[in-house]
Design goal:
This protein has 88 residues and is mostly helical. The chain is 41% helix and 5% strand.
Length: 88
């Protein structure tokens, strides 16, 4: 088992004495000093490739639908403002 000081077995950076984790990659005794013992169960990484273009198309649709409300609110406030100027 690795004990600092020395070279991190995961990333190769120097780990100073009395360190509880690698300052570069964060590997430690609890997570595993070597890649075989590292714990990745809690990361919830997707198994398939991420389609960024599809994400953007979906995200823009949501933003447009939600922002239409605020466009209407801004238009109504602008009309009220103009009516206030004309009424003077």
């Amino acid at each position: 088992m690795f004990k600092p000081p020395g070279e991190c077995p995961v990333c190769g950076e120097f780990v100073p004495a009395k360190s509880v984790a690698c300052p570069d990659c964060g590997a430690c005794e609890r997570s595993g000093w070597n890649e075989d013992d590292a714990i990745y169960d809690g990361l919830d990484l997707p198994d398939d490739d991420f389609d960024y273009d599809k994400y953007l198309r979906q995200d823009r649709g949501k933003a447009t639908a939600g922002s239409m409300f605020w466009w209407w609110v801004a238009a109504v406030l602008f009309v009220i403002f103009l009516l206030g100027l004309v009424a003077r």
